[in-house]
TrEMBL record:
Pathway: Carbohydrate degradation; glycolysis; D-glyceraldehyde 3-phosphate from glycerone phosphate: step 1/1; Carbohydrate metabolism; erythritol degradation; Carbohydrate biosynthesis; gluconeogenesis
Keyword Cytoplasm: yes
Entry-linked InterPro entries: Aldolase_TIM, TIM_sf, TrioseP_Isoase_bac/euk, Triosephosphate_isomerase, Triosephosphate_isomerase_AS
Keyword set, alphabetical order: Cytoplasm, Gluconeogenesis, Glycolysis, Isomerase
Gene Ontology MF terms in the entry: triose-phosphate isomerase activity
CDD domains: TIM
Role played: Involved in the gluconeogenesis. Catalyzes stereospecifically the conversion of dihydroxyacetone phosphate (DHAP) to D-glyceraldehyde-3-phosphate (G3P).
Protein name, as recorded: Triosephosphate isomerase
Protein's cellular compartments: Cytoplasm
Subunit architecture: Homodimer.
Active site location: 98 (electrophile), 168 (proton acceptor)
Domain of life: Bacteria
Length: 251
């Protein structure tokens, strides 16, 4: 397998007005060409900001992504946004299956899979999220739950180029809690084995992100775990100094 170039992707969630564009500019300005050679950086933003962000960062190393998409290309789906629309606005990737979508909107593995295929259809990279809840972990079911989500959410045809997998334990998102390095290593090893078994070399080279309360203070340790190829960052992506502090784990 090749050496995997890590990715640190921010997820702004339902945060950010046009006044927040400066944060992305500040992040982009803080990525030296040397750092850009070692790690990729992306901000996944609300749909209303994507075109503006893509324009204001077009000459920089920062890439822009969406946070969700509909599975269809167009049609009678009021309020929804297609992957083609995100690509048209300047996104290069889209998060699908975030736990907040799975919880707030009842998204199933099958739907997440259809959304990932929609992302590819539009030329976007699909960032597919999986992760167990607190009660599932307490019941000793973390590996089983993540394996099931992985099997059900990743479409056939996934490659190291068109898909990124993010392990985000639900209980670690926005809570300040993180799993131990050993727990992250265990899950990422299981994901890697499952991906290799299913996709061969493409699974060996696929980027596996960790997400859940990543901060500048814990980034180095978490990013140093075997089979962790970067981070998906919520809260700490809203402040340029925090996001740059996480990227610095790869400096
Ligand atoms: C997320 O929601 O993708 C996330 C990782 O959030 P936070 O970093 O705030 O825990």
């Amino acid at each position: 397998s090749q050496t995997i170039k890590p990715l640190v992707a921010g997820n702004w969630k339902m945060n950010g007005l046009r006044s927040h564009l400066d944060v992305a500019s500040e992040i982009a300005a803080g990525i030296s060409s040397e750092l850009a050679g070692k790690v990729d950086a992306m901000i996944c933003a609300p749909a209303t900001l994507i075109q503006l962000l893509a324009q204001s960062t077009s000459a920089t190393a920062l890439r822009i992504g969406g946070e969700d998409c509909h599975s269809a290309e167009s049609g009678a789906h009021t309020g929804d946004i297609s992957a083609e629309m995100l690509a048209d606005a300047g996104a290069t990737a889209v998060i699908v299956g975030h736990s907040e979508r799975r919880t707030d909107h009842g998204e199933t593995d099958a739907l997440v899979k259809a959304k990932a295929e929609a992302a590819w259809r539009a030329g976007l990279v699909a960032i597919i999220c999986v992760g167990e809840t607190e009660s599932e972990r307490k019941a000793g079911r973390a590996v089983e739950v993540v394996s099931g989500q992985l099997a059900g959410s990743i479409p056939d045809g996934a490659t190291a180029q068109n898909t990124i997998l993010a392990y985000e334990p639900v209980w670690a998102i926005g809570t300040g809690l993180t799993p131990t390095s050993g727990d992250v290593e265990e899950i990422h090893w299981e994901m890697r084995e499952a991906l290799i078994a299913r996709l061969g070399a493409q699974g060996a080279d696929m980027r596996l992100l960790y997400g859940g309360s990543v901060k500048p203070g814990n980034a180095q340790e978490l990013m140093g775990v075997k089979n962790v190829d970067g981070a998906l960052v919520g809260g700490a992506s809203l402040k340029a100094t925090d996001f740059l502090g996480i990227l610095a784990a790869y400096a």
